[in-house]
Amino acid sequence: RRLVSSGEPVMSLEAALARMPQKGAMQLLERILDLDKTTIRCLARDHRAADYPLRIEGRLMGASLVELGAQAAAAHASLHGVGGDHAGLLLSLYNVRIDLADADLAVGCFVIAAEQVFFDDGMARYRFSIRDEAQERLCGEAMLKMQAIDA
Question: CB within 8 A of 3, min separation 6: which ones?
Fold first, then answer.
């Protein structure tokens, strides 16, 4: 399957996710649902798994879902501005609202949306939201620094 942006093939889904700085179990995005020049929507891996890497003593706190928003933003920045493998750094969060203290109470799976607000030479600011099948559970903004690394 190929991702499409503005009518042009970008790359395969596997290639796009392989470029992410998160590898193995920490790659929490299962697939990219929609993509264009400024937005991305992703489906997250099953957060109910006992070995889900954001669990602390068996619990998944709602605040941990910020990582999903950061990964969706990083995936978009990777596809639209950073060449090759890269390391990502979450510099800051703004206006984060968490409506679910215990993420295990979420209904169904998570869909993550991120919208690019600013991008300049590896710095990116995104608005993001995480929804389950019932409602929005977390939203905010993130500033990222994306830096290419030698593969």
Answer: 9, 10, 11, 12, 13, 16, 32, 35, 79
Question: Tokens for 74?
Answer: 């990083």
pLDDT score of 24 more than 90: no
CA distances from 51 to 25, 27, 84, 107, 132 (A): 9, 13, 29, 19, 20
pTM of the model: 0.83
The two three-digit tokens of residue 41, written as one number:
């929507």
Specify the range with the lowest mean pLDDT, choosing from 3-7, 42-46, 88-92, 97-101.
3-7
Task: Give the long-range contacts of residues 17-20, CB within 8 A, separation 24 or more.
Answer: 17/75, 19/78, 19/82, 19/84, 19/85, 19/86, 20/71, 20/74, 20/75, 20/78, 20/88
- 125: Cβ contacts below 8 Å, ≥ 6 apart: 116, 117, 118, 119, 141, 142, 143, 144
The one-letter code for the residue type at 120 is D
| Average pLDDT over the chain, rounded to an integer | 83
Q: What is the DSSP string of 26-66?
A: G--EEEEEEE-SSEEEEEE--TTSTT-TT-BTTB-BGGGGH
